[in-house]
Amino acid sequence: MSLEKKLKTYKNPDLSITKYNLAAWAIPENRRYGFHNLYRLPRYSFSVRAPEILDLERDISVGMGFRSDVKEMTQSQSFSAMVVLKGQRLLYENYAGDFHPNHPHTLMSISKLTINLICGQLISNGSLDVLKKVKDYIPNIGSGYAEATVQQVLNMDLENNYSEDYSDPLSTSFEHETSLGWRLPSENTSELSQKEFLCTINSIGSSIENDTPYAKYKSANTDVLAWVCEEVSQRPLRDWIIDIVEATGIEGNWYMHTDREGFPVTDGGVNLNCRDLARFGQLFCRYGVGVNNKFVGNKHFIQDTIENPGPPRLPPEDFIFYSNQAMTNKEWIGHGGYGGQFLLANPKTGISVAFFSDLENSDAQDNEYKIKMVEMMSDIATKF
Fold it and tell me: How far is residue 186's CA from residue 172's CA, in Å, rounded to a whole number?
């Protein structure tokens, strides 16, 4: 065969950009399939398993399944899975007909909680100073982050030209997905690594100050912090993730996306089964004490995340504060994920609640649905 003859190929169908400027796996009619399979769809990833598994004692609360709020949320067409743990007691689990206990689901932005743990640990050993500027740790970072303090980035409390509006097909967050391996590059563009992409984010004018009283949610913040953690610790981020997996004691696989260079996607790249997500929540209930009695994170940092949070979310979610790459109502710690995911952990009661769902509207956002979900989970974790 002549070397000059080009072999016939076609674009990867899952990762090709289609309507709404979304990758095919993310468009509304494919989103449930995409969320149930995102552990295997992106271009780059790795998988970790734990040597010791947190044993769960089945102690099902029959009454929980009859709660009106639980029935409403678990009977929704968007529902995939829900698990409630109190320590090692499995109080409740429920799965949709097309999902099962061992199946991994994307966590989306719940993945950001890994950075709360890593930063907390680096702060506790004196390696990371949250009052220093990002440029002190990453001298070549762009103007969108150079003058920001680490604390501003932790609290989503800064402004730059990175936008994350899922109703806007031109939002920067969709461009970011190319570096995450979630979509193919558009025509005549190159695929930047995460670090290359983060350096392209610039300030708007001369200031990065947040001119509102609300958190300005930017997933790029998480990846900047992940990079800072690597620079501070001089340790590959992948090794930190292995520590977290081993401390959590998961039974299945921790699937995690990376960029082309192998840099883990902490802003939204983790995929777990629902029991393992609830186990991850227990790590926060125990203030970072792992199944192997090794700390990941920092008890005081987790307490401070809950008790002295950063700015509130935009209304109508302003009962939730954004704090140190986590969400809190000053009682629990947790995080939500794009399209209907949430993890909530209450250290005072020892209860963690994990919830997977798959919103299939155009922008995968529904404030009323999210508020009902969080209120249900909060009530269970606080009062049960």
Answer: 14
